[in-house]
Amino acid sequence: MLGEGILKGLAETARNFVGSYFSAERLTTVQYPEQRIAPIEATRDFPFLVYDGADWEAGLRCVACQICEKECPPKCIYIEKSTGKKPDALGKPQFYPARFDIDISVCMSCQICVEVCPFEAIKMDTEFELSTTDRFGGLLYDRKELAKSNEHYHKIHPTEAAAVDAHLAGEKAKADAKTKAAAAAATAKAAASAAPPAGGGA
Ligand code: SF4
Ligand code: SF4
Hints:
The chain has helices spanning 4-19, 56-59, 67-71, 112-116, 143-146, 150-156, 158-194, and strands spanning 47-51, 77-81, 86-87, 93-94, 97-103, 122-124, 140-141, 147-149. It is of the alpha+beta class. The protein has a domain at 39-166: 2-Layer Sandwich (Alpha-Beta Plaits), CATH 3.30.70. The strands form 3 sheets. The protein has a 3-stranded mixed β-sheet with strand order 6-1-8. A 3-stranded antiparallel β-sheet has the order 2-5-7. It has a two-stranded antiparallel sheet with strand order 3-4. Helix 6 packs antiparallel against helix 7. The protein binds iron/sulfur cluster (2 copies). One iron/sulfur cluster binds next to helix 4.
């Protein structure tokens, strides 16, 4: 029915308004900033870069593939790829971002960067108190300001972070098995070429 959604919304608002006089559960507003409501798990504000381990720089998952930079609708991501490589989460040598900036004043929190990242390297934070009087550079965050640990990711989005960890562990197990199989094949090949030809040496 046309307008059904609007009517449902108005009914819910009316239920909360009247109910708030009788039940604390229906009181959906608080006296911010003295009172705060913990963000729900699906809350998303601005992106951050996930790192593993204790060293933010060495542990960044980002491999500077620049897909997010290309797909960001308002073009507020700026990446410069490194010239050298470092091991990624699976131990494979990869480029990394020598520069990774996001202009938070332009970001529209669409989460497209997160959706397109093939490396689980960028996720949405729940931090929203970011206002500053520096309108020219205060909201242009560099990679150090954007870097947050996997523990932080688990704290704000536990279900999603656990699923990502399981996915990465599966990918690592597959990569390790492939490396092991390649090493075993190389050893077998070396042994075969070192062995004397059948029937020779008599
Ligand atoms: S959330 Fe959207 S607008 Fe913000 S950096 Fe990601 S892709 Fe760009
Ligand atoms: S955050 Fe993801 S998509 Fe963006 S450059 Fe890094 S690895 Fe690529």
